[in-house]
Design brief:
- With 107 residues, this protein is mainly α.
- The protein has 2 domains: 54 residues, no CATH class; 44 residues, no CATH class.
Length: 107
């Protein structure tokens, strides 16, 4: 059986929650309950992964150079194409694309 719980939210978050209740036809209580459930589940999963990684690291189980090279190649930006051009432009001329801080180039 659910137990009562009180939470304090800032005004902007509360307004956003109310807009969400209208758009989803769900109650504040349902949305907040679901958000807390999701947060708890996500953090439990993340902590389990961290703990498993620490156990592996403590026994010396690290990725080999070949595996690291494969992963780097998989996620490396493509040298051609629109996304690669925008990324290069954002790094070389931050004001041309955005005023936010640029992503440092991969090493």
């Amino acid at each position: 059986m659910p137990a009562p719980f009180t939470a304090r939210l800032d005004e902007s978050t509360l307004k956003a929650l109310d807009r969400l209740t209208e758009k989803t036809n769900r109650s504040r209580n349902w949305l907040v309950g679901r958000a807390v459930e999701d947060l708890v589940a996500l953090n439990a999963w993340r902590l389990d992964k961290i703990e498993a990684g620490l156990v592996a690291a403590n026994r010396g189980d690290f990725a080999h150079d070949e595996e690291l090279a494969r992963v780097r190649k998989k996620f490396a930006p493509k040298s051609s194409g629109c996304v690669g051009q925008l990324r290069r432009r954002a790094i070389s001329k931050p004001s041309a694309i955005t005023s936010s801080p640029t992503i440092p180039p991969r090493v």
